[in-house]
Amino acid sequence: MAAIRQLAYGTTPDSLDEYLRTSERTARECVYKFCEWVVKLYNKKYLRKPNTNDVQKLYQAHKERHGFSRMLESIDCMHLPWQNCPTAWQGQFTRGDHGHPTIILEAIVSQDLWIWHVFFGVPGSLNDLNVIYQSKFFNDVITGTGPDTSFTVSGVEYRCGYYLAGEIYQTYYTIVKTIPHPTYDKRKKFAKFQEAARKDIEQCFAVLQKMAYP
Can you say how many angstroms the Cα of residue 193 is from the centroid of all Cα atoms in its chain? Predict the structure, then answer.
């Protein structure tokens, strides 16, 4: 109970001494043990990097469902409302275009709502552009330590898979963006399929919001 109240409501460890009859030190240890066992129970499947077997399954599933060959997953960001934000932090986590405290969440999601990467941005005026610079997601791409996802298109070999993203993202060879104003039929078809495939992550965000605020 001490761990749940601290994580869910943002209460401090020393505020539980009268209600739960626990000391500040005990309350802190409860949070540590709770998080430790959550990681032990779920780290083999969730919030981990995909292995070679996972990559092949993702390739096959996305090709059959969306028609995108060698697509890994979709990446996007959302501002998650923080209703229980402590008063002292509300100024840091409130943006003018929202008017209430929010936490920006970057996630990578597959077609079956498997989330294997999340990053919560630090306080400030964060958006999809600058949160990606703070996330450690592309470190493996830069250092070349990620899973083997090489493939060949038109005789050119690419050493990593790609992710679908919105047009606000900068141009990276691992990110395939939509075409904002397609003019030719071929471009219109691509934009239609790309935006339809990105419904996976929009569905995930809808589920997270429903769980947080039923």
Answer: 22
- The C-alpha atoms of residue 172 and residue 15 are separated, in whole angstroms, by 47
Look up the pTM and report it.
0.71
DSSP secondary structure letters along 15-50: GGTTTS---HHHHHHHHHHHHHHHHHHHTTTSSS--
CA distance 78 to 112: 19
pLDDT in tens, the chain (214 residues): 888 888 877 778 888 777 778 888 888 899 999 999 988 888 877 777 787 788 888 888 888 888 887 788 888 888 888 877 778 888 888 877 777 888 888 888 888 888 888 888 766 556 666 777 777 776 766 666 666 666 666 677 777 778 888 877 777 777 888 888 888 898 899 888 888 888 888 888 888 887 766 5
